[in-house]
Structure formats: structure tokens, C-alpha cells
């Protein structure tokens, strides 16, 4: 009978219960930010820096997979020579990769 009359354990107050429930969500968001958002932002900044540093003679790869050598750089565009005497203008933001002009192809 004495067991039935024992007072129940104290429950956390409303604010403490709310914080206990929110902690897992906050932890998930922090982990998501550290593992996914921050590295993606770093890659975007590196890509923008590479695009803004394009100069004549750099070898580039466009979003469509076309490789070529930059012959002229304008504000938003670049002129790329994809074959001898064949030049195309591409929007700089569509360039996905940049290699310096100092490297030579293996088959030359």
C-alpha cells in the first residue's frame, strides 16, 4: 500500500521538455551543415575563383564536355579554340574545369 502512495518522479518543466525534444533536430542540422552545406559552398567559391582567373592559353572543359584552349577572354564570355581554326564563344559560367596552358598532351 505504501508503494501506491509514493509520489511520481518529477517531470521536466515545459521549457526543459521543449529543449530536450529540440536537441536531436538541432544536432541533425549541425551535422548536415558540417558534412554537406559547408563543403558545397567551398567548392562553389573555388569554381568561381577558377572561372574568374581564366586567361589566354588555359585549357578548359565546358559543361557539354568540349575541351579547348582559350584564345580570348571577355567579361562574361570566352573564345575557345576546339580544333585548329575552329573557335567558339562560351559563357564563362558553363566552364566546368580549367587547366593551365603549360601542360602538353601525352601524344605530342
UniProtKB/TrEMBL annotation:
Principal subcellular localisation of the protein: membrane
Transmembrane segments: 16-35
Membrane-topology descriptor: Single-pass membrane protein
Pfam family for this entry, one: YajC
Subcellular location field: Cell membrane
Extent of the signal sequence: none
Keywords associated with the record: Cell membrane, Membrane, Protein transport, Translocation, Transmembrane, Transmembrane helix, Transport
InterPro entries the record matches: Preprotein_translocase_YajC
Family (UniProt): Belongs to the YajC family.
Subunit-level organization: Part of the SecDF-YidC-YajC translocase complex. The SecDF-YidC-YajC translocase forms a supercomplex with SecYEG, called the holo-translocon (HTL).
NCBIfam families linked: yajC
Function recorded in the entry: The SecYEG-SecDF-YajC-YidC holo-translocon (HTL) protein secretase/insertase is a supercomplex required for protein secretion, insertion of proteins into membranes, and assembly of membrane protein complexes. While the SecYEG complex is essential for assembly of a number of proteins and complexes, the SecDF-YajC-YidC subcomplex facilitates these functions.
This protein's name: Sec translocon accessory complex subunit YajC
Organism: Sphingomonas hankyongi
Phylogenetic lineage: Bacteria, Pseudomonadati, Pseudomonadota, Alphaproteobacteria, Sphingomonadales
Amino acid at each position: 500500500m505504501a508503494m501506491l502512495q509514493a509520489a511520481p518522479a518529477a517531470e521536466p518543466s515545459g521549457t526543459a521538455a521543449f529543449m530536450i525534444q529540440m536537441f536531436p533536430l538541432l544536432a541533425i542540422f549541425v551535422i548536415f551543415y558540417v558534412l554537406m552545406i559547408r563543403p558545397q559552398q567551398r567548392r562553389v567559391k573555388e569554381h568561381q575563383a577558377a572561372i574568374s582567373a581564366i586567361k589566354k592559353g588555359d585549357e578548359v572543359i565546358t559543361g557539354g564536355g568540349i575541351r579547348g584552349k582559350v584564345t580570348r577572354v571577355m567579361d562574361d564570355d570566352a573564345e575557345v579554340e576546339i580544333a585548329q581554326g575552329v573557335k567558339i564563344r562560351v559563357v564563362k559560367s558553363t566552364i566546368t574545369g580549367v587547366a593551365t596552358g603549360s601542360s602538353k598532351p601525352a601524344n605530342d
